[in-house]
């Protein structure tokens, strides 16, 4: 049963428009109403029908439909009574009120859904004497109640005026009640009908409406109605006050909340709320995780918080993303390591040529892991010039031991939060890149490359290298704490491999935690082998020439290496080979054929004249010029030291963009020569009459370090004595005032640079002999080494 609320309840949606009789005086013509002895009884569940009021009702119960149909066949009269309890679905005779209203069926409408809607009009009140039948519908004997006269005294007129006034005030305070209601009230003149109409539409309890119907005296009914209207007016005023107060607070967020609630209802109708399904799925995933007690407790609290929150609130996404990270991280999920040492060696040899020291270290790690079953992963650091394959070696190691591979670039990193993560309460907070990488590979023991660890910066946002101390300490990283996760996470099974070009740029505390493995540059023979095995096939594939038969022999590759590149690695070599392949691709596209093999002449035609030449080292130099060996972050290089004397007062001038250490080496060398001038055959007064100018070519390139000490000594002595320096000779070593020669670093790179330059002899400190022994003999074939202890030995060998 749908109850009509014409006004008094602004929150209820109206399902129909109340119908008003065109002639209210019809209520006065019901005195002659003939009621049958057995009147069909129609129970109403949620409302009370008053005389004179027209009401549409939906009839759904079988008994009610039969009663309506039977009444329609005869005089169209039914007895309408209210149920005492509206929750009773199938009321008995004891569940019905004894006072009701005789109603006339104005119209019966069959609805499309099979239901029946009946428009009824109340006629007279009655007292239910007794039921004469309960099946197939209720029938009863009723007695009509005589309506008391309204009277025309001033007292009654005041009641009526007061009722109209109260009703009009309520209509004005209720925005959902149409303004036409005031016009209707104004035009009702019959006091009895006014009371019945207002009572019918009053927003009050069913028992109070029944009491209004039961009271016989019209004045008593008017008094009770006024009390109920006064209460409803107070409620309407309070509600209107609160509405006006909170209306301005109905902002976008509240509007979205109401829309979300409606959307939630729609989703439930379509098959359930997606948020509930997501939370259920998250709980299911959590059951499969091997979490610590702290992690389980954090997840439980987070999921309970989500269940209490609406998805539109800002904190919902913060909590959800945090729990999502916990579920995505591999807690105790590890890949199985491969302990096949032969296969590991095969994979490493296939991917990279040479690098025996690193390969042996990895095989040692696998062997210990195989025997012990568990081992804290070492923190390796590959140090060497660019382009020699440090980063790609990490991928090969992962493949060799059967682990997943992830690379983390640290170059230019300034913010500590990139390592440790942001606190999750910040807008846009994320976990650190360590946990992000582990989340991506979904494995707790990957091979993680920390690329360019020597290029980590530091500013006001923190020092990332200090944050890496915890990550790269095997004694601490099993309890690594990320600010976003807010839990300890075990990184001890991760195989960290750092790469760097210059170890001196790494913070000392961090460097202490790394197992340093030096990677030297490649010899010419190694570059030719790498080009033949890896670079040429790669460039053929990249330029669509893999299926076209032609070959590039080792002599041609050696020509490209020697005349068109000057590097420790193979990146420039790769670019030169790419240039050759592009030219061959163009030729094949035009002529649809290629020569079976590439000649040296073809290389010069494609790449142009050689960029580098060794002839400058083979020509006879004038006195005062010596060749030194230098180490740069891109590998070894050749350095000329030029000395010239001029008339003056014995001043020393240094040019060529030299650092402080190199300037001090020049001063030390000059002081030694002055102290031993007689032994060297130099007149002491020359130092007072000659200005000395030392220049190192390529002035745009900064140069520093102590390793040019013996070269400067040789150049200055050559200038003063007029003796030339032996051709094809290079040297490197630090000097002291006592005339001692000290060892220097970067020997392999320097020796390979001398070999590339076509030099034949090298002077080194005797303590560097062990460094030369580590170089493959094939790569230094044709080089003679002189190992010295004193500066006098250097001069004896170098000056002719």
Automatic annotation (TrEMBL):
Q: State the coiled-coil residue ranges.
A: 219-246
Keywords assigned by UniProt, alphabetized: ATP-binding, Coiled coil, Cytoplasm, Hydrolase, Nucleotide-binding, Protease, Serine protease, Stress response
> Ranges for the Lon proteolytic domain?
620-800
Q: Which CDD domains match?
A: RecA-like_Lon
Q: What are the record's GO terms for cellular component?
A: cytoplasm
Cite a single Pfam family from the UniProt record.
Answer: LON_substr_bdg
Residue numbers binding ATP: 384-391
Q: What is the lineage of its organism?
A: Bacteria, Pseudomonadati, Bacteroidota, Chitinophagia, Chitinophagales
Q: Which organism is it from?
A: Flavihumibacter petaseus NBRC 106054
**Known partners and oligomeric status:** Homohexamer. Organized in a ring with a central cavity.
Transmembrane in keyword set: no
Q: Which residues form the active site?
A: 707, 750
Q: Which InterPro entries match?
A: AAA+_ATPase, ATPase_AAA_core, Lon_bac, Lon_bac/euk-typ, Lon_lid, Lon_proteolytic, Lon_Prtase, Lon_prtase_N
Name by which UniProt lists this protein: Lon protease
Principal subcellular localisation of the protein: cytoplasm
């Amino acid at each position: 049963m749908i109850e009509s609320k014409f006004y008094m309840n602004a929150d209820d949606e109206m399902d129909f428009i109340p119908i008003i009789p065109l002639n209210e005086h019809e209520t006065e013509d019901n005195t002659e109403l003939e009621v049958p002895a057995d009147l069909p009884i129609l129970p109403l569940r949620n409302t009370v029908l008053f005389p004179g009021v027209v009401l549409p009702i939906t009839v759904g119960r079988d008994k009610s439909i039969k009663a309506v149909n039977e009444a329609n066949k005869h005089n169209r009269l039914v007895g309408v009574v209210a149920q005492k309890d509206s929750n009773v679905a199938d009321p008995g005779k004891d569940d019905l009120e004894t006072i009701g209203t005789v109603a006339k069926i104005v119209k019966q409408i069959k609805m499309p859904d099979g239901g029946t809607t009946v428009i009824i009009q109340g006629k007279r009140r009655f007292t239910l004497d007794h039921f004469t039948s309960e099946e197939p519908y209720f029938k009863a004997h009723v007695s009509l109640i005589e309506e008391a006269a309204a009277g025309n005294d001033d007292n009654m007129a005041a009641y009526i005026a007061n009722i109209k006034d109260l009703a009009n005030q309520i209509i004005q305070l209720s925005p959902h009640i149409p303004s036409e209601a005031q016009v209707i009230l104004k035009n009702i003149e019959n006091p009895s009908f006014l009371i019945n109409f207002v009572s019918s539409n009053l927003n009050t309890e069913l028992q109070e409406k029944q009491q209004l119907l039961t009271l016989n005296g019209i004045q008593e009914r008017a008094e009770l109605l006024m009390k109920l209207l006064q209460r409803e007016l107070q409620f309407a005023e309070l509600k209107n006050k609160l509405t006006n107060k909170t209306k301005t607070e109905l902002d976008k967020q509240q509007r979205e909340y109401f829309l979300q609630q409606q959307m939630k209802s729609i989703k439930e109708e379509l098959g359930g709320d997606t948020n509930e399904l997501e939370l259920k799925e998250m709980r299911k995933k959590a059951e499969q995780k091997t979490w610590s007690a702290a992690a389980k407790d954090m997840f439980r609290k987070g999921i309970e918080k989500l269940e209490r929150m609406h998805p539109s609130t800002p904190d919902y996404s913060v909590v959800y993303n945090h729990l999502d990270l916990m579920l995505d991280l591999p807690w105790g999920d590890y890949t199985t390591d491969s302990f096949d040492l032969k296969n590991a060696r095969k994979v490493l040899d296939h991917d990279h040529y040479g690098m025996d020291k690193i390969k042996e270290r990895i095989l040692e790690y696998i062997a210990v892991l195989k025997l012990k079953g568990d081992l804290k992963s070492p923190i390796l650091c590959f140090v060497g010039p660019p382009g020699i394959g440090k980063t790609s070696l990490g991928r090969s190691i992962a493949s060799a031991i059967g682990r997943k591979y992830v690379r983390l670039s640290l170059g230019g990193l300034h913010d500590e939060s990139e390592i440790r993560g942001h606190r999750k309460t910040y807008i846009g907070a994320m976990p650190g890149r360590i946990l992000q990488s582990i989340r991506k590979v979904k494995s707790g023991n990957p091979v993680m490359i920390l690329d360019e660890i020597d290029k980590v910066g530091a500013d006001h946002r923190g020092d990332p290298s200090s944050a890496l101390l915890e990550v790269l300490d095997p004694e601490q990283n099993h309890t690594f704490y990320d600010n976003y996760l807010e839990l300890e996470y075990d990184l001890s099974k991760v195989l960290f491999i750092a790469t760097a070009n210059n170890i001196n740029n790494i913070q000392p505390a961090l460097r202490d935690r790394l197992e340093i493995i030096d990677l030297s540059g490649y010899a010419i023979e190694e570059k030719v082998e790498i080009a033949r095995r890896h670079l040429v096939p790669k460039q053929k594939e990249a330029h669509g020439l893999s299926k076209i038969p032609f070959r590039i022999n080792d002599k041609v590759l050696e020509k490209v290496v020697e005349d068109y590149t000057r590097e420790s690695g193979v990146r420039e070599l790769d670019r030169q080979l790419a240039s050759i392949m592009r030219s061959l691709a163009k030729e094949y596209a035009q002529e649809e054929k290629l020569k079976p093999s590439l000649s040296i002449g073809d290389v010069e035609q494609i790449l142009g004249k050689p960029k580098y030449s060794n002839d400058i080292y083979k020509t006879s130099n004038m006195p005062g010029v010596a060749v030194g060996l230098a180490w740069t972050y891109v590998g070894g290089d050749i350095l000329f030291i030029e000395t010239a004397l001029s008339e003056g007062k014995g001043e020393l001038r240094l040019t060529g963009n030299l650092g402080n250490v190199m300037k001090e080496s020049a001063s030390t060398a000059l002081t030694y020569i002055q102290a031993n001038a007689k032994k060297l055959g130099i007149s002491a007064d020359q130092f007072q009459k000659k200005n000395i100018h030392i220049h190192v070519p390529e002035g745009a390139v900064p140069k520093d370090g102590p390793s040019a000490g013996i070269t400067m000594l040789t150049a200055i002595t050559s200038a003063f004595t007029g003796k030339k320096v032996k051709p094809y000779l290079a040297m490197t070593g630090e000097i002291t005032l006592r005339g001692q020669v000290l060892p220097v670093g970067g020997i392999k790179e320097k020796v390979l640079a001398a070999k590339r330059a076509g030099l034949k002899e090298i002077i080194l400190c005797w303590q560097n002999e062990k460094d030369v022994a580590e170089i493959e003999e094939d790569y230094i074939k044709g080089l003679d080494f002189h190992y010295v202890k004193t500066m006098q030995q250097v001069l004896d060998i170098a000056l002719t």
